[in-house]
Amino acid sequence: MPEEAPRLTDLTRLCRQVRFSHAPYDRSTKHCSPPLLVSAQCAICLYYSTLKGGFSRGKGLGVKAESEFSNSLEQHRLRGTSRRLPKIESEMSLVTLEMVRNDPTVRTYIRAANEALSAMGYTEHGLRHAGIVANNARRLCLKLGYTERQAELSAIAGFLHDVGNVIARDHHAQTGALIAFHLLSQMGMPAEELAIIISAIGNHEEASGYPVNYAAATVILADKSDVHFSRVQNPHRDQFDIHDRVNFATQRSRLRVFPKERIIELNLEIDTSVASLMEYFEIFLERMVMCRRAADALDCRFHLTVNGSPIG
User: Can you list the domains of the chain with their CATH numbers?
Assistant: First the structure.
């Protein structure tokens, strides 16, 4: 059976774009039969056909198929309906956040990572946190004038940034980058996009990270700004550590973008009866410094506002 046969839905859509009729589809083999491909004079089907094996991107055209392909294109060119053929490979390899978010393996890894961190007493690092970081990374990109695709890559990096915790907390940024590389490669993401995402994931932690590209910068800002009472997983308040107290005290956290002024502002509302501002800065100072570097990389300034008062 020919390998990597394009799906019927992809082919009918693409055939419709160039105004050719589609060859009958064999549901048992999940691809069109070669004789019908040739007789149908569908440019896309002919392009992906061979005399021996039907659809296959890895094989060239047979002599008869090549002749039919050329004749078909010439006929439609003379009728004024010929168009440039869409690139099936590029369309099929476009990985989206929706694909990543709904992938069973991805969801299993993120859930397992959060369970491991919960057992060690950490705040929530599961699907909730992944979704917030993804959405904020995307929003930052779009607000600051990056393209839709760049925003999508930042969102994917944001969703996967903590997946390395499924292995261990230490060096989870680097192990997460390797896991993301494996997952996204299997989905068909091209190398140039993979490089952006794994760099962003591998550089999101304070100890060794740096905003090496736009995706890394937006993921850093989206990640470090997610401080909120809903992240606390410890049900016993009398056993809270400083991280639990600071998160539990934070009633509201908003990451705001002012594109014209090139300002990115983290606005926090903290209940100081639960945790003091000194406790907040004790654990978040290094993260706020990293946010400032990330904002600089995006040609912006980082502002922090706590309980309505600007701090730095």
Answer: 8-91 (no CATH), 93-311 (1.10.3210)
pLDDT in tens, 256-312: 999 999 999 999 999 999 999 899 999 889 999 999 999 999 999 999 999 999 986
pLDDT of residue 59 exceeding 80, the answer is no
The alpha-helical segments, DSSP class H, found in the chain are 8-17, 34-40, 43-47, 63-78, 88-92, 97-102, 104-119, 127-143, 148-160, 172-187, 191-202, 214-224, 242-249, 277-297
The pLDDT, as a whole number, for residue 1 is 46
* Length of the chain measured in residues: 312
Which tokens is 59 given?
């094989």
Residue 184 near residue 107 (C-beta atoms within 8 A):
no
HSE toward the beta carbon, residue 300, CA cutoff 13 A: 27
